[in-house]
Amino acid sequence: MENLNLILPEIFISLSIMFLLILGVFKNDSSKITFNLSLFAILITTIITFNETFSVTRETLFNESVVIDSMSSLMKIITLIGGFLVLVISSTYLKTFKIYNIEYPVLILSSILGMMVMISSNDLIVFYMGLELQSLALYVLATYNRDQLKSSEAGLKYFVLSALSSGLLLYGCSLVYGFSGSTNFDIISNQLNSNEYVLTFGIVFILVGLAFKISAVPFHMWAPDVYEGSPTTVTLFFTIVPKVAALTVFIRFLYVPFLNLIDQWQMIIVFLSIASMVFGAVAAIGQTNIKRLIAYSSIGHIGYTLAGLATASNDGIQSSIIYISIYVVMNLALFSCLLMLRRKDQYYEDIDDLSGLSKNHPLLSLCLLLILFSLAGIPPLAGFFAKFYVFKAVLEQSMYFLAIVGLLSTVVAAFYYLRIIKIMYFDKEKDKYDTDHSLWLKFSLTVSTILILLYFIFPSQLIEVVSRINII
Amino acid sequence: MNFPILSSLILLPTIGALFLFFIKEKEGNNTTIKYVALFTTVVNFLISIYLCITFDQSTSSFQFIEDRTWIKGFINYKVGVDGISILFIILTTFITPLCIISVNNSVKNRLRDFLIAILIMESFMIGVFSALDLVVFYLFFEAGLIPMFLIIGIWGGARRVYSAFKFFLYTLLGSVLMLVAIISIYWITGTTDVVQLYEIGIDVKYQNLLWLAFFSSFAVKTPMWPVHTWLPDAHVEAPTAGSVLLAAILLKMAGYGFIRFSLGLFPVASEVFTPLIYTLSVIAIIFTSLIALMQEDMKKLIAYSSVAHMGFVTLGIFTLQQQGIEGSIIQMISHGLVSAALFLTVGVVYDRMHSRLISTYGGLVSVIPKYSILFMLFALASLGLPGTSGFIGEFLILMGAFKDNFLVAVVASIGVILGAAYMLWLYKRVVFGKLVNEDLKKILDLNRSEYFILSCLAAPILFFGFYPDPLINTIEVSVTDLINMHKINIASK
C-alpha cells in the first residue's frame, strides 16, 4: 500500500477546489467567502506539506512516478506561500475593477495544484499533466479582466505561444521516450548514455519548452506583453509562482534523466543564461511601463538562476534555489509597492507616475528604494547575497566567462534600477496617492522589505534549509 | 570575550540614524535632529580616541579582533585594526562630526534624511577600514555607494543626476571584477580571511590576474588617471558635506585597499605591475595638475588637485620602500584633513554668494580677513609647505621614490611645483586683487560654527606638520612588517 500521507497536500487542495466550485454554484454572492476559504485551504495545505513531507529525504509513489524529496517539499512551500500572499493582496485591486469573483481564487488554487504536481513529478506523463493544469489556469487568469482589451490580448498571446511550447515539449518527450523506452525519469537516466543526434533533438525540444515557461532569452517574447496586459495581481503571480515550479522541473530534468548527457546541455544552459542576463539588462533600459520593466528585469533574474544550474554541481543547484527564493521575496515587495500606487480607484503603472514619490510618501519610497537596490544586487541587501552565492558556485567550476558577463550585466541592470530611484527621489513631486491600503498589503510590503534589509544578519538559516537538497 | 569596541564603532552611527528615522522633521526647527546626529558622531569619535589610547603601538599584529561565524563554513565576520587602519578610522570619526556641524547652512530641505545618509555612510566607512575578511570588506566597500548616490543626487547642484549616475556606475563597474577575484581567492585558498591569507600566500600563477581585478576597483575609487573623470563631476555637484566625505574618506578606501590587499596579498604581482602604477601616477600628477591650473570652478580645481594628490599616494605605496609607504599613509591622512578644509572653505563663500566660479571673487582679504588667513593656511598645506602635514607626506613619498626610481621621482617633483602654481594662483585670484564685485562687500566673515570647524581642521594640520611622530610611531611597526613580509615573499618565489 502506498503511503498516501505524502501526497496529502495535493489531495487536500484538489478537494478544496471541488468544494469551492460547488459552493460557488449553490451560494449567491459567495466571492468573499470563497476568497477566505481558499486562503484557509492554502494555509492548511502549507501546514500539511510542512508536517508530512518536510523531513522526508526521498520517497517515491505510484511506481516511482511521483517523488517527494527535500527539494520538492521546499519548493512546494515556497509556491504555496507565494500563492497565499498573491491572493491575499489581490482583493482591493480586483474590487476596483469589479472582477472580485469566485473564479479567481479557484483558478489560482488549481494552478497551484498543477505546479505541485509538476514539482513532485518523476515521470514525463505526470509532469506534462501538471504543466497543462497550471497553464490552463494561467491562460484564464491572464484574461481575467476581460473587459479590457489588453488583458484579453495578453491571454490570447500567452495561450497561443504557450501551446506552441507545450507542443515542442511534448515532441521532445516523445523522442526521449522513444530512445529510453520509459517515461520514468530514473529509468531514462539509466538508459540514456548514447550520443545519438535525434536524442539531442529531444533534449533540445524539452529545454526549449521549459525555457519558454520560465521566459529565458530567446524564448521570452511573450513575457513583456503578457505581463503588461494581465491584471497587476496576476502579473505578480506570473512573475513568481510558475517560475518556482518551472525552475524545479528544470532542475529535475537536467539532473535526473539527462545527467549523463551533461556535455550536450551544459552549453545550452550557459547560452540561455548569458543571453537572458544581458538581454534582460539592456532591454529594460528603454521601458516606460513598470510592469514591462519588471518583465525584462525578471528575464535577467532568470538568467542568474540558470547560471547556477549550468554549473552541474550541488552548490550550483542550491544557489539557484536560494536565488529564486530571494527573488520571490523581492518581487512580492516590488508589486506590493506597485499596488499602492492608487488614486481614486485608478492604478498607475508608468515609471513617471513615481515622480517625486519620496516627498509625498517617504516610507513607501524608502521601501521601494531598498527593494530596487536589492534587485540591482547592491550589498548589504538580500539581492546581493543571491547573486553572490550563484557566482560563488559558478566560479567553483572555473566558469569565468559566465561570471564576468553576469557581473557586468548587473552594472547595466543597475542603471535602470537607478533610473527609477532617480525619478522617485530627484524629480518633482506629483499628486498624492491614496493611503488607505488593506492591512495585508501593508503587511506583505513590510515583511518582505524587512526580510530584504535584514537578511545579512542571519544568512545561514536559508543556506541550512537549502543545503539538504542534494540532487546529484 | 572583550567588549566588541570595533563593532560598536560600526554600529553606533546606524543606531543614531535609526533614532533620527523616528524623529519627526519640523519645518524650520531642526535642532533636535542635528543634536542627535552630532551627539552620535561625537560619542563615536570619543570611542575611537579610546581605541587609539588602548592601542598597542609596539606590535604589528591585528588588535581588537572580533571573529564570529557569519555564513557557516564560509565567511566569518572578522574585524580588527593595526597601525595603518586605526588612523583611517580616527580620520573618519573626526571628519564626520565636522560635516554634520557644517550642514547648517548648505542643506535646506530634508535635513533629517541627509543626516541619516551621512551617519549610515560613517558606519560603512569604518567597516571598510576595520574589515579583516575580503567579503566583509567588499560588503562595506560597495554598500557605501547607496548613501553617497543619494547624497549627490538629492542634495547636489544642477547636474546632480548625471554626476550621481556616473559616480555609481563607474564605481560599481570597477568593483564587480573585484568580487570575481574575491570568490576566486576563496576557491584557490579555501578562505577569505585576510590574516590567514597573509600566512598562506596565494599561488604566483594566479596573482597577476587577481591583482588586476583588485586594481580595477581601487583605480576607479582612488581615482587614477584615466578613470578619474567621475570625481570632478561628483565633487562639483555634491553638497559641501558630501564633497568633504568623498574627498576626505571615500578616496582613502582605495589607497588603504592598495596597501592592505594589493601589496599584502599579491606581493609578486605588485612588483610586476609597479611600472604601470608609476606611469599612471606620474601622468595623474602632471596631467591633472595642468588641468587644475585651467579650472574656472573652485570645487573642480580642488577635485583635480585631489586626483594629483592621490597620484602621489599610489606612487608612494608602490615604491615598496619604508618611507614611500609611510609617506603615502601620512599623505592620505593629511589630504583627508586638507581637502576637507578646502571644500569647507569653498562652501563658506558658496553659501554667501551661491557661486563657485573663481571670477566671482577677488579681493576677499579686505572684507573677510579671518577667512582669508585660514584659507591661506589650507592652500599652503595643500601645496606641501614645510610646517604643514602636507609637506611630511609628499617629502617622504619623494624620498621613497628617489630610492626606487630616479626618473619617476624627478617627474613627480615637477608635480609639486605645479601644485604650488595652481593653489597659489587660485588663492591670488580669490583673496587678493581688487574688489570688483559689489555684492562681495556685504558678505560676512566666518560665523562661530564655521570658525570652529575650520580651526578644528587647522590644528592637526599644523600639529602634524611640526611633529609627525605620533603618526609615524603608529604606522611604523605595521609598515615595517608589511615590507619585511613582502621581501620574504619575493625572495621565496
Proportion of residues in β-strands of chain A:
under 5%
Give the overall pLDDT of chain B as a whole number: 87
Basic shape of chain A: globular
The proportion of strand residues of chain B reads: under 5%
Helix/strand-derived class of chain A? mainly alpha
Task: Tell me the major beta sheet of chain A.
Answer: 2 strands, antiparallel
Query: How many helix segments of chain A?
Result: 19
Shape descriptor of chain B: globular
Key terms:
heterodimer, A: 472 residues, mainly alpha, two-stranded antiparallel ribbon, 4 strands, B: 493 residues, two-stranded antiparallel sheet, 2 strands, 3% strand, globular
Describe how the helices and strands are arranged.
The complex is a heterodimer of chains A (472) and B (493).
Chain A: H1 8-26, H2 31-53, E1 58-61, E2 66-69, H3 70-96, H4 103-120, H5 124-142, H6 149-180, H7 185-191, H8 197-213, H9 222-229, H10 232-255, H11 262-283, H12 290-309, H13 314-339, E3 342-343, E4 346-347, H14 357-360, H15 362-376, H16 382-396, H17 400-426, H18 439-454, H19 460-466
Antiparallel strand pairs in A: 1-2, 3-4
Chain B: H1 5-22, H2 31-54, E1 63-71, E2 75-81, H3 83-106, H4 111-130, H5 134-143, H6 145-155, H7 160-189, H8 194-200, H9 204-221, H10 230-237, H11 240-265, H12 267-293, H13 298-317, H14 322-353, H15 364-367, H16 369-383, H17 389-404, H18 406-431, H19 448-466, H20 469-492
Antiparallel strand pairs in B: 1-2
Describe the structure.
The complex is a heterodimer of chains A (about 475) and B (about 500). Chain A is mostly helical. Chain A has a domain at about 260-470. Helices cover about 75% and strands about 5% of the residues of chain A. Chain A has helices at about 10-25, 30-55, 70-95, 105-120, 125-140, 150-180, 185-190, 195-215, 220-230, 230-255, 260-285, 290-310, 315-340, 355-360, 360-375, 380-395, 400-425, 440-455, 460-465; strands spanning about 60, 65-70, 340-345, 345. In chain A, the strands form two sheets. Chain A has a two-stranded antiparallel sheet. Chain A has a two-stranded antiparallel ribbon with strand order 3-4. In chain A, helix 12 runs parallel beside helix 16 (about 380-395) and helix 15 (about 360-375) packs across helix 18 (about 440-455). Chain B is mostly helical. Chain B has a domain at about 295-493. In chain B, about 75% of the residues lie in helices and about 5% in strands. Chain B has helices at about 5-20, 30-55, 85-105, 110-130, 135-145, 145-155, 160-190, 195-200, 205-220, 230-235, 240-265, 265-295, 300-315, 320-355, 365, 370-385, 390-405, 405-430, 450-465, 470-490; strands spanning about 65-70, 75-80. In chain B, strands 1-2 form a two-stranded antiparallel ribbon. The longest helix of chain B is centred in the last third of the chain and has 32 residues, at about 320-355. Chain B starts with a helix and ends with a helix. Classes of the chains: A mainly alpha (about 475), B mainly alpha (about 500). The interface of A and B includes residues 362, 378, 400, 403 and 414 of A.
